[in-house]
Amino acid sequence: SDLLFPGCELTASTKSYTFQVDEEDDSDHILALSVVCLTDGAKDECNVVEVIGRNHENQEIAVPVANLKLSCQPLLSLDNFKLQPPVTFRLAAGSGPVHLAGWHQIVHREDASFEEDDDFSVEDALPPIMPAKKQRSKQ
Questions:
Q1: Per-domain residue ranges for the chain?
Q2: DSSP code for 45
Q3: Where is this region: Disordered (predicted)?
């Protein structure tokens, strides 16, 4: 099921926000960021927002996802950039306020199970690639 992620606001006084789920929960959770934008009261300065999460080796990594400036790029669409909780959003530079919004998807383990169709293959699903026809030049 999809839930609206009401979002969070990063400011000079609240520089980070952590989205986490109950460790006892055996569902899969996905947090998708849709929009990062400057809100009322923002100064014309660079506001860098970074995401802090864990890589495949369970090491903490920080990745900048937005660099907003009121006069040239006050809003950034992240096209539902998917993250796996726990994840922390941090205002690495600037004083904000920066608002983040998106959605939270919960996939229950029993919903994720499916039966594979043995009759289906990639060759059946994709049409064959045909070579391009050479065009004759008119002379």
A1: 2-108
A2: S
A3: 116-139
What H or E segment, with its residue span, contains residue 124? helix 122-125
Instruction: Specify the pTM.
Output: 0.71
Instruction: Please give the CATH number for the structural domain made up of 2-108.
Output: 2.60.120.340
Q: Are 74 and 38 in contact (CB under 8 A)?
A: yes
Side chain identity, residue 137: S
In order along its 139 residues, the chain shows pLDDT tens digits of: 566 666 899 999 999 999 887 777 677 888 889 999 999 999 999 999 999 998 888 889 999 999 999 999 999 999 988 888 889 999 999 999 999 998 888 877 664 444 444 444 444 455 555 565 555 655 5
